[in-house]
Design goal:
- The complex is a heterodimer.
- Chain A is of the alpha/beta class.
- Chain A is built from four helices and four strands.
- Chain A has helices spanning 19-28, 50-58, 79-96, 114-131, and strands spanning 10-15, 37-42, 63-68, 104-108.
- In chain A, strand 3 (63-68), helix 3 (79-96) and strand 4 (104-108) form a beta-alpha-beta unit.
- The longest helix of chain A is centred in the middle third of the chain and has 18 residues, at 79-96.
- Chain B has two domains: 4-218, no CATH class; 230-361, no CATH class.
- In chain B, 38% of the residues lie in helices and 10% in strands.
- Chain B is built from 13 helices and eight strands.
- Chain B has helices at residues 11-20, 64-72, 87-98, 128-140, 149-152, 184-193, 205-228, 231-239, 247-251, 271-281, 290-301, 310-314, 321-335, and strands at 4-6, 26-32, 39-44, 81-84, 107-112, 164-167, 178-180, 200-201.
- In chain B, strands 3-2-4-5-6-7-1-8 form an eight-stranded mixed sheet, with helices on both faces.
- The relative contact order of chain B is 0.13.
- The mean pLDDT of chain B is 95.
- Chains A and B meet through helix 2, helix 3 and strand 4 of A and helix 8, helix 10, helix 11 and helix 13 of B.
């Protein structure tokens, strides 16, 4: 149904220490990546509650990207391990509710890897474009 | 399986013995209310009121774990209190212990194999025909007509974790109680009760046949819920009746927060925000965030959901809340290999982690 999806919207929750810094690095390195993401910076990926992700999807975001430090490299030592469990829960609930859990992606992107950030954003945007608009986007009574 | 013995006591004798021989400070169980129609969970501090006691009355005016939480949250009772709990109430209590909302100290837990309950509105103490049919179903190990769908599909109906377990499925109502004492506390109680442990009783095959019937019903329920929950459209179909009263969360034993996140300022938007949303979609149904409330609540308590069915009992618009939460909750529990209420030492899945796990949820 979606064909000319320049207005595909992806909400990205990025941790302050790694993935947001990687996004910064991608910017200062003048790397181009798809303009479809809207970044929300959080101090740690474990701050991201399943409710945030579900709200984004129910309110019509086409995709949700969660970025954090690689396992073992968390600024707070173990926040991303907790985050992984929360995202697993969010994905499972989305699946149970028939919301496409494929619209949720968890990526570990270290601070030094600007190119990886650009790559993940491009790849995920492409993936969401293939899935098309989130059906909830037009749903008024949700 | 614990050895079951013939206690040679009927319920009234057993209740009296709790006071006389175990010297309990109180007994908590369902009791008839003055109206003569309904029953409520009640604390008896002496034997005088016990004739009104109906521990097996097939209704749940509340999940009793909430009452036990109030009795034990800040400090344990100074003397033993004997509490009757349905298996789902006992599981809820176990979950509450993990979040420090209850304690087992000085509690003597009496539970029984549960044949399910009727929706609260649909059963009265005077409904003799219904109650007789229910009793027939109990003694033959079948699902009684009219019990809540979530009870009919409950496969965890045996009293795991109790100190004293009463076997009632497959037995007639007027025969002496068949008891077992699975815990150390229970063993001590058995000695104090002075029971003749030589007279053992066989497990009833009716328990097995009820388990099979329940399993089939559970599979059917899962399939039905999965079919109806099908994306944005399915969510709208199921929840568009919701009037956002949040009663389901107020009666939920797991939802212990005094100030619910979904009643908080977080979901009080500036007026402008409504207009922005309205402009984006062309229309906006008020109040907003109805489906989010349900899915969000699932994310808060679904992992600990014991499928007690209270949420569905109180829903004023008949949304099958409990059937949905039981099904979606079990799926979430399976991801973490977690059984709510199984063991109070198991950590809550979101408060624990392993370094190498769940890789299928990463990109």
């Amino acid at each position: 149904m979606a064909n000319n999806e320049t207005d595909i919207k992806i909400v990205a929750f990025l941790c302050n220490w790694c993935t947001f810094t990687a996004a910064d690095l991608a910017g200062t390195s003048r790397l181009k990546y798809a303009p479809n993401i809207r970044i929300v910076k959080v101090m740690c990926s474990s701050r991201i509650e399943p409710v945030f992700i579900l709200k984004a999807l129910l309110d019509g975001a086409d995709g949700v990207l969660i970025g954090g430090c690689a396992p073992g490299d968390c600024h707070y030592s173990k926040g991303n391990f907790y985050a992984r469990r929360k995202i697993a829960l969010a994905k499972t609930l989305a699946e149970s509710a028939g919301l496409d859990s494929d619209r949720i992606r968890l990526s570990w992107i270290p601070a030094s890897e600007g190119p990886k950030f650009a790559h993940v954003v491009n790849e995920f945007t492409e993936h969401i474009k293939n899935l098309g608009y989130n059906p909830a986007r037009r749903e008024v009574y949700i | 399986m614990e050895t079951m013995i013939d206690s040679r006591m009927i319920m009234t004798d057993f209740l009296a013995a709790l006071f006389d021989k175990l010297d309990v400070a109180a007994v908590a169980a369902m009791s008839k209310l003055p109206s003569g129609e309904k029953a409520a969970y009640t604390l008896f501090t002496d034997k005088s009121g016990l004739k009104e006691c109906v521990p097996f009355f097939p209704a749940m005016p509340a999940n009793a774990a909430r009452a036990i939480s109030k009795l034990t949250r800040e400090e344990a009772p100074s003397k033993t209190v004997a509490v009757f709990l349905r298996p789902c109430e006992l599981r809820a209590l176990t979950e509450l212990i993990k979040i420090k909302q209850a304690s087992l100290d000085n509690l003597l837990i009496i539970s029984y194999d549960c044949s399910g309950v009727f929706p609260f509105q649909k059963i009265n103490l005077s409904d003799e025909t219904k109650l007789n049919a229910y009793q027939d179903a109990v003694s033959t190990g079948k699902n009684s007509e009219g019990i809540r769908p979530v009870c009919a599909a409950c496969t965890r109906f045996t009293p795991r974790g109790a100190d004293i377990a009463i076997s009632i499925v497959g037995r007639s109502a007027d025969q002496p109680l068949v008891l077992s004492f699975p815990s150390e506390k229970g063993q001590t109680a058995a000695k104090q009760l002075g029971l003749d442990v030589s007279k053992t009783v066989e497990a009833s095959p009716a328990v097995e046949s009820l388990a099979r019937e329940r399993k089939t019903a559970e599979e059917a329920l899962t399939e039905q819920v999965n079919e109806s929950l099908s994306g944005a459209q399915g969510l709208v179909n199921i929840f568009d009746r919701c009037i956002s009263c949040h009663a389901c969360s107020y009666v939920c034993p797991i939802c212990y927060c005094k100030n619910c996140y979904f009643d908080s300022q977080t979901f009080e938007y500036f007026p402008e925000s409504y207009f922005t949303r309205m402009t984006a979609k062309g229309t906006l149904r008020m109040p907003v965030d109805r489906v989010l409330f349900h899915l969000g609540r699932l994310s808060h308590m679904g992992i600990s959901c014991v499928a007690c069915g209270m949420c569905e009992d109180v829903c004023p618009v008949n949304i099958p809340v409990s059937q949905i939460f039981k099904t979606a909750g079990s799926k979430a529990q399976a991801v973490f290999d977690y059984i709510p209420g199984e063991n109070s030492d198991d950590p809550l899945p979101l408060l624990a982690y392993a370094e190498n796990e769940l890789e299928e949820f990463e990109d």
